[in-house]
Design brief:
Layout: E1 5-9, H1 14-25, E2 29-34, H2 37-40, E3 47-50, H3 56-62, E4 68-71, H4 79-97, E5 103-107, H5 116-119, H6 125-138, E6 142-148, E7 150-151, E8 160-164, E9 178-179, H7 181-192, E10 200-207, H8 216-220, H9 246-257
Helix pairs in contact: 1-7, 3-4, 4-6, 6-9
The structure holds NADP nicotinamide-adenine-dinucleotide phosphate.
C-alpha cells in the first residue's frame, strides 16, 4: 500500500527535517508530531500536531487520517528517556492505531543487534531501538526498517547507496559504514512508495560511486523478514524474548493481538 498522508515522528531532528522535505518533494501530505510549534521551524505546508511523543494520547490525535508513519526520533540523555523516546514513540503509535493499518518506515541504527552490554554502554539505546523494531514487525503493518551507518562521515564521492542485511558490523565506529543524512532521508521516504521495500530490514551505507536514480532494484534484492518472527531475516539470534522486560513482552502481546 502506498500511503498519501504521512506522520513524521522526530521531524525536527537532523534526519527528520530532511525526510520531511523529501516527502514534500515527492508529493506526500506531511504532518509532524512536534512538542513545541514555536520551535519547529518546518516548511509552511507541513501540518503540525503538537504533542508529547512519550504519551499515547499524542498519537491518537496525530494519527487521525494518516496512513503512513516515518520514525526518526531519538534521545540520548538517559536510559529512561531512550526507552520513552526511541522505543516509547513506536509503542505509543502502534497502540494508538489499535490494529488500523498504516505504512511504516522506521530508522534505527547499524549495529542495533549488537547489544549494549557488548559495547559496555550504560544507556541501552541499541537494545531499545531493537525492541522498537520488534514491535513494528509484530504489528502486521507493512514496514521498512532502515539501520543507517554513521551520519555524514562519507567522502564527497561516496554516494552509491548500499543495502546490507544481517547487521554484522560491530566496531561501533565509522568503519561499520557511513552515509549522508540526505540519503537516509531519501531511503526512508522512497521505501514508503516502493512495493519491493515491504517488510524488509536493511543496514544502509554508501560506497564510492554515484547515487542511483532508482532504488527499487536494491529493495527487490533484499530478503524480506519472516512473517512469524520478531527479528530481521538474517539477524543473529542473540536477544531472546525470555530475557526481555515484562513490560516489553506485554507490549508485544497487545500489539500482536490487535493485528
Ligand atoms: N549519528 C549517527 O551517526 C547515527 C547513526 C545511526 C543511527 N543514529 C541514531 O539516529 C538518531 C539521531 O537522529 P537525528 O540526528 O535525526 O536526531 P536529533 O537531531 O537529535 O533529533 C531527535 C528527534 O527526536 C526528538 N526528541 C528527542 N527527545 C525527545 C523527547 N524527550 N520528547 C519529544 N521529542 C524528542 C527531537 O525533538 P526536538 O527537536 O523537539 O528535541 C527530534 O525531533 C539517534 O537515535 C541515533 O542513535 C545516529
Amino acid at each position: 500500500m502506498t500511503p498519501t498522508r504521512i506522520l513524521f515522528v522526530g521531524a525536527t531532528g537532523s534526519i527528520g527535517r530532511l525526510a520531511v522535505n523529501e516527502a514534500l518533494r515527492q508529493g506526500y501530505q506531511v504532518r509532524a508530531l512536534v512538542r513545541d510549534a514555536t520551535r519547529a521551524g518546518l516548511p509552511g505546508d507541513v501540518e503540525l500536531s503538537v504533542g508529547d511523543l512519550t504519551r499515547l494520547d499524542a498519537f491518537e490525535t496525530a494519527l487521525e487520517g494518516a496512513d503512513g508513519i516515518v520514525f526518526t526520533q531519538g534521545s540520548h540523555t538517559s536510559a529512561a528517556m531512550v526507552e520513552a523516546v526511541d522505543y516509547g514513540a513506536v509503542r505509543n503509535a502502534l497502540m494508538a492505531l489499535r490494529g488500523r493499518k498504516v505504512r511504516i518506515a522506521l530508522m534505527t541504527a547499524i549495529g542495533v543487534t549488537y547489544m549494549n552490554s557488548q559495547y559496555n554502554r550504560t544507556i541501552e539505546a541499541h537494545d531499545w531501538k531493537r525492541r522498537s523494531e520488534r514491535l513494528v514487525r509484530a504489528s502486521g503493518n507493512e514496514y521498512t526498517i532502515v539501520r543507517p551507518g554513521w551520519f555524514d562521515y562519507n567522502d564527497d564521492d561516496q554516494r552509491r547507496i548500499t543495502f546490507l542485511q544481517g547487521d554484522t558490523r560491530h566496531n561501533a565506529s565509522p568503519e561499520d559504514g557511513v552515509v549522508a543524512r540526505r540519503q537516509i532521508a531519501r531511503v526512508l521516504v522512497d521505501a514508503l512508495g516502493c512495493d519491493e521495500a515491504t517488510n524488509t530490514t536493511l543496514e544502509l551505507v554508501a560506497e564510492h560511486g554515484a547515487e542511483q536514480d532508482d532504488l527499487a532494484p536494491l529493495f527487490a534484492a533484499l530478503e524480506p523478514d519472516p512473517t512469524d518472527g520478531v527479528d530481521g531475516v538474517l539477524d543473529e539470534d542473540n536477544f531472546p524474548l525470555t530475557d526481555q522486560p515484562r513490560r516489553v513482552l506485554d507490549d508485544l502481546e497487545t500489539i500482536r493481538r490487535a493485528r
